[in-house]
Each structure stands twice: as structure tokens, then as C-alpha cells.
Amino acid sequence: MAFKSSSSPSSALVITDASVKNNVVTSIVHIHIYNKLITKTLYYTLNITSTKAELFTIRSNINQATNLNNILKIIVITNSIHVARKIFDILSHPFQKHSAIILNKLRAFFSYYQENSIEFWKCLS
Question: Could you tell me if 22 and 47 are in contact, meaning their C-beta atoms sit under 8 angstroms apart?
């Protein structure tokens, strides 16, 4: 399904993964368009929860994907789908800053073209 979705030049496939080891969070992002790697980003951070790191990663990915030309559909593949759900929970106070930034970016993405869409897919580690 991932390769089929990334075979469209108007779809951005965003693959995220974050892990914690010795209080260091490592987060990696791949963005593919048309079965081609567009960008690979690696983040390291200290003394942060894995949830906040994953939210930051998703936020960064959405920023990158919405800035690409002619993208109508964003597919975010993550092993932390429970974190992605927090984006849309406005009552989750510890994560409101990340949610507000992500939702603002998505609002602009959706208002640009009515057919734009985003999907979140769960992928097990």
C-alpha cells in the first residue's frame, strides 16, 4: 500500500520513527514522493518524553510535506498512532503548543485546495 500511494506525484509519504535510549530520543523521518526519497531528517534530543519527541517529528514532517509543490495528499506512517491522535485532542494541555502549530499548518494546507487530504497509518515497530 505504501509503494502504491507513493507512486502518485501528488502524494507525499511521510515515514516517522522515534526511539529512546539512555534518555536520548532519536527521531528519523523519510519523505517520499513518486517512489523517490525527497528528504531524510534525523533529530536527537535530551531529557524529553518520547511523546513530545514524536509530536515534534510529526509537526516537522507536516511542515516539510505541506511546503512541497503540488502535494494534494499527505500520508503519515508512524508506530505512534496514539501520539498522532493527541494532535486533534484540544483538551490535552501538555501538548497544546504542538497541536496548535500542526493544526494551523494543516488549516492552510486544506484551505489551499479543497481536495487536499491527510491520512495517518499505524505501522508496528
Answer: no
Which triple of cell numbers denotes residue 90? 484540544
pTM of the model: 0.81
* Closest among 22, 28, 118, 32 to 79, alpha carbons compared: 28
Task: Indicate which CATH number applies to the domain containing 51.
Answer: 3.30.420.10
36 to each of 7, 13, 30, 79, 107, how far by Cα in Å?
Answer: 9, 10, 10, 22, 27
Place of cell 497544546: 96
Residue pLDDT, tens place only, 61-71: 888 888 888 89
Domain of 15?
2-122
